[in-house]
Amino acid sequence: MNTELKISQPDLYEADYYLWIQETLEKLKHQNYEQVDWKNLLDEIEDMGKSERRSLSSNLVIILLHLLKWQYQRDRRSESWRLSIVKHQIRIEEALEDSPSLKGFLAENLEKQYRKSARLASAETGLPIGEFPSECPYSIAEVLESDLSAFNR
What we know:
Layout: H1 9-15, H2 17-29, H3 38-72, H4 79-98, H5 103-108, H6 110-125, H7 140-144
């Protein structure tokens, strides 16, 4: 434990994050609850949830971006786009296996992430933003589908 440093738990959190984690784990394992730095622990747990949602959103944006490019730039389709779509679909699948309750978050945020993807697609392709549908043309099931032949429209 932190006997040599004599740093308070909140200060330890700022001074040595890894050591703070180790000490917090030890205190929890030994049910030494009164010495746990609850404020920072609760903040960390909350941030973990935010991090999972940000990761899902980021993967969704990339899939949507490549689906738009796949659909609107047929002559430039590449294996790297296909690989990127599949790789990010797998990342989402893995995240949902670990946290199935996030599937609702994914569906609820489809439109928001689509708008980001359309902006990125416009910037990357040089096509005006108006060339892309104003609302997401894909269902969440289609976005997570691995078969790109459905997008050969």
